[in-house]
Amino acid sequence: MKYIVPLLFLVCCSCNKSSNLFMGEMKIVSTFQQEQHLPGSLVEGIDSIGVFGITFFKDYKLIKMNRLPYFIRIYQGEANQFKGNYFYKGKGPNDYLDLSPTHQQMDSLLIAYDFYQYKLFLIDLVEKESHIRAERVKEIECKGFWDPLKAFYLNDSMVLMKSVYIENKAYRLAYSFYNYKRNKILENYLPLYRECLRYSEMNWIYSGADALKPDQTKIVSVTGAFNQIDILDLHDPSRSFSISTSKENLTVEDLKSYANSNTEEELHEYYFPPKCNDQYIIALYQPKNSLQKEFHVISWEGKPLYHLPIEEPLNSFDVDWKNAVLYGLTEDGIIYAYKLSFLLHPA
Fold first, then answer.
1. C-alpha to C-alpha distance for 44 and 34, rounded to whole angstroms
2. N or C terminus: which one in the chain shows less Cβ crowding within 10 Å?
3. What SS3 state is found at 258?
4. Strand partners, 81
């Protein structure tokens, strides 16, 4: 399928006057409305061996596993009752080649994406006595994309796709609305970046660290290497913007220099993949030249609300928004819980 790219995207890609890779304007944050240390408590009863991801859904903790015959181990409730191993690897009709829950809030169904099959799954976790059965409610094939990176479910006929495609030997990232029932990509592409990036340059940034606002109007995204949080307005891209905590940021030229050199030096990763609800965006942040990490909480309008330093070396997290509890995961697979009750009753 040939892609039809709007003129706006071509013009913005050719523009390299701004050091901000993202499409929108840059807002510099110097202070947050509130700053407080966020104490963590160890979550017991969950085996840490092979753990590299956590998702909270209903009252279940979905623990993503590495190098095992299945993708997810499920625990339930505050007592962390083990419910079983789910989503087995394989090529059978009920198997998966890859499975990652999307960063998308949906109360009734779990939404997960199989990157290798290019399929989006809507899954119901049905509890029968002491057993949970994972039932596929819907299976959506994301056809027509050269490299679909991420998918968000919108409704009975539409998904929002983040994809890569090539033009003039350059790689471009954009969101598009895809009617999966008609296998048709709508022509209103939503560009993420001003610059066209080569494959070697894209390898230095996160390509799937995005979350969808539950009302489906905005996307929050981070690249890791750039000290900023990007917010894409899906209805009016001209209102998109970035937030940064420093005037000194990596430039696009710096990124290209790193990517096209033989240096073994690693770029510093500032922000880790964010989580959100309709009110707040929470992102895990590590300042440069510092071992201590912190959480930044901002509004969708870009207001810097909470600066929350932590002691634990987390590298991923998820949020139980109903009970205002954040669950963080360390590189060693240890899980900590953090109470966010102040978000339920802000001052």
1. 30
2. C
3. helix
4. 76
User: What pLDDT sits at residue 40?
Assistant: 97
CB-neighbour burial class of residue 66 (10 A; exposed 0-12, middle 13-18, buried 19+): exposed
Residue for token pair 């008609």: 182
- Count CB-CB contacts under 10 A for residue 303: 13
For every residue of 107-121, DSSP letters joined together read SS-EEEEETTTTEEE
Quote the pLDDT of residue 18: 45
CA gap 121, 295 in Å, rounded: 30
pLDDT at 19: 57
Q: What was the pLDDT predicted at 347?
A: 63
Point out the residues of the chain with pLDDT beneath 70.
1-19, 167, 188, 347
**Nearest partner of 43 among 286, 246, 305, 339, judged by Cα:** 339
| pLDDT value of position 107 | 79
Q: Is 130 helix (H, G, I), strand (E, B) or coil?
A: coil
Q: Name the burial class of residue 93, with classes exposed (0-12), middle (13-18) and buried (19+) by CB atoms within 10 angstroms of its CB.
A: exposed
Output the DSSP codes for 52-94: EEEEEETTEEEEEESSSSEEEEEEETTTTEEEEEEEEBSSSTT
For the four alpha carbons of 295, 299, 302 and 307, in that order, the dihedral sign comes to negative
Q: How many CB atoms lie within 10 A of CB 124?
A: 13
Q: What is the pLDDT of residue 17?
A: 37
Q: Is 244 helix (H, G, I), strand (E, B) or coil?
A: strand
User: C-alpha angle with apex 152: 178 to 281, nearest 5 degrees?
Assistant: 135
Alpha-carbon distance of 309 to 312, in angstroms, equals: 9
